[in-house]
Specification:
Length: about 160
């Protein structure tokens, strides 16, 4: 058996519907909020399947200022897809904020929707929503956020291309 076939067969069945995410993605995004100025950024996401016998995807996300290349934000965590189309996600951000999200994934529509169940160690953020969608081979995502003073509203959006 060649290496590529071994890697495909090593993917846990619960991870298989999301295997298109595996690898590195890079692109640009834009952010803003009713309480801050708009901004643009570069970013890279990395999805891996570190334990083929387990239904888990490791996730890391790094952003930087486009003009200087200086780091802006990073987060990492784990996605646990389930056979019923649900997905559990745990994310730790470099700011100390932690998220526990529940959502759904659809292999047919190639869309992943997640809503926060817990936002911990956040003095102002009370809710986060994340939607990832494949469009013409590109990974699009939108993050919405609610604070103690604002309702759920757009915060970040980006378009990423898969790296070879």
């Amino acid at each position: 058996m060649n290496k590529e076939k071994e890697e495909i067969s090593a993917i846990h069945p619960a991870v298989a519907p999301l295997c298109y995410l595996l690898g590195k993605w890079k692109g640009e995004g834009e952010g803003g909020y009713s309480t801050i100025n708009s901004f643009r950024y570069g970013e890279q996401l990395h999805f891996s399947h570190p334990a083929p016998g387990k239904p888990v995807i490791a996730y890391s996300h790094n952003t930087w200022k486009l003009d200087s290349g200086l780091p802006m934000h990073s987060e990492s965590g784990y996605w646990r897809p389930k056979h019923d189309g649900s997905v559990e996600v745990v994310i730790a951000q470099s700011t100390g904020l932690a998220e526990v999200l529940m959502g759904t994934h659809s292999a047919e529509d190639i869309v992943i929707k997640r809503q926060s169940q817990v936002v911990a160690n956040a003095s102002k953020v009370r809710e986060i929503s994340r939607v990832y969608e494949m469009v013409n081979g590109e990974l699009h995502y939108v993050v919405q956020m609610a604070t103690n003073l604002t309702a759920l509203q757009p915060h970040l959006k980006a378009v990423l291309k898969k790296l070879p």
